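Sharing a chain and its predicted structure for anyone who wants a worked example. Both blocks are below, sequence first, tokens second.
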Amino acid sequence: MRWLIEDDVLQPFFQPVLESEETSVALVVVRDHFDQLLGGEKTRFCKMPSSRAKEFSSGRHAAHLAQNAVGLKPIEISSEGRVPIWPGNHVGAITHDAKYAGSIVSTHLKGVGLDFERIGRIKPKLHEKLFTDSEKNWLSQQARLEASTIMFSAKESVYKSVYPILKRYVGFLEVEIIVDWARETFDVQYKAEDMTEISKCETNGFWSVSGGHVLTIVEVR
């Protein structure tokens, strides 16, 4: 996995996973990246409120960096609703919040996902809707503030990675996350009946923490 990190503040999110020329991750700080947008992306930017436009342009800029890093000519990433539509020769995902943005692109994996989340955003009152009984039991034993954020972010990354495969949205309780603190990785268990085939795939999850944020990444092979 190739990493492109534009700002030093993002360097702590780097994960030394297996190097691959066919997969890349690009991370950027959110700011106005209008000049790096392509085609209809500029039209969409101009219709958005300022803060949303900066997040959107930063995510698309990261996507173009990631495309270029795997040998692809950067092209416009359209969307269906808020779901990015990727060309047939690669898969990808985009994430952004008010502070950071990123993208992952691959020309050989079946699915990829990544997600930035601010630590502390996932309150205990949300756990019933977001987490399985096993996950809630695990969380009840954790003292680290970022535990629930890692688990939630991992689910978001999984959903992005499997959406193009399943062609549907995935509910929070349809996947189960098993976090490995020591290795900064997580395993994924697929719970729904139509996930039998994807359960046979190898799903790798990674996470890192810095600056009050969690970054999770998922590869489906």
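Comments welcome. The longest strand covers residues 111-118.
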